[in-house]
Amino acid sequence: xxxxxxxxxxxxxxxxxxxxxxxxxxxxxxxxxxxxxxxxxxxxxxxxxxxxxxxxxxxxxxxxxxxxxxxxxxxxxxxxxxxxxxxxxxxxxxxxxxxxxxxxxxxxxxxxxxxxxxxxxxxxxxxxxxxxxxxxxxxxxxxxxxxxxxxxxxxxxxxxxxxxxxxxxxxxxxxxxxxxxxxxxxxxxxxxxxxxxxxxxxxxxxxxxxxxxxxxxxxxxxxxxxxxxxxxxxxxxxxxxxxxxxxxxxxxxxxxxxxxxxxxxxxxxxxxxxxxxxxxxxxxxxxxxxxxxxxxxxxxxxx
Length: 303
What we know:
The protein is built from 13 helices and ten strands. It has 303 residues and is α/β, with parallel strands linked by helices. Strands 7-6-5-8-9-10 form a six-stranded parallel sheet, with helices on both faces. A four-stranded parallel sheet has the order 1-2-3-4, with helices on both faces.
């Protein structure tokens, strides 16, 4: 990084033959540097880390808007071109691996997902209160999710859970989100320490209407043992079953009903809390990621 490194090209020109593996993260970065990596580090295994499939998110957003925003086809082709040019492509869920298999069946695609660890338990059900949403507002799906929740779901929640406050946590909320701030919906913005939030909240929500990849907001809440009410988009590819690990609803009334159930029914809350922590431990632990990464890099781990 600067000031020690002036450019990726200069690094590759002077030290490219030292590398066994080069990881290129996000397609718009990888597209700029893939040719130079191949030319100046020809011995390296090239791994393309998608982070998430950007074209998939763009397609879902277009479908939601009822049209095709400019650049979706171009973004898809650029992302697929990088997959073609890499030795291995990393995605975060089996769903995204299946998407790429339909487009490029010959490509090698491995799943290396988000990493989370179960956190120390917070307060018991009876001592918890409030609903929480977390997400950076630099990411457009988060603003859309909060606006949809506030306009379509919150009026129904008010009737079912009077006085319960939904707190919106996340950096740089736009004016449209800040304008929602009211007695029952608190826009907190950036919060330095989220431990007090998730050890005290009773339920977390993920009302995303479009997106791609694995949702860190869902994993984060579950790692704290906070039950999650989410849309189907928000839990895609996360090994979660509706009614077992999470409550899933895509329409306002169903979402409000699920939220009221998770918030008010202690038995349901306890079940979802335990299952969420177990899901994180099984599918998103450091050990799971270590095994996946070793396979990508062709390493043999000790048994």
